[in-house]
TrEMBL record:
This is Helix-turn-helix domain-containing protein. Signal peptide: none annotated. One of its GO terms (molecular function) is DNA binding. Residues 6-63 form the Helix-turn-helix domain. It comes from Desertihabitans brevis.
Amino acid sequence: MITADLTTVEVAVQLRTDRWTVTKLIHRGELPGAYRLGAHAKRAGRGHWRIPQTAVDIYRRNHRHEAA
């Protein structure tokens, strides 16, 4: 089955945080494979992020102890 990559808002819901925190995780490299869409995606602050579900799953597995 093919699944679409997630938006920052969708990831925020899964991680029970806000989209700004998700963006910080992307910039810190904690959600590998995240990429930007849009005509001006390479410019700072432009484009919409997409994050693979596998990156979210790995992040959750690696940070499970912090939620306890």
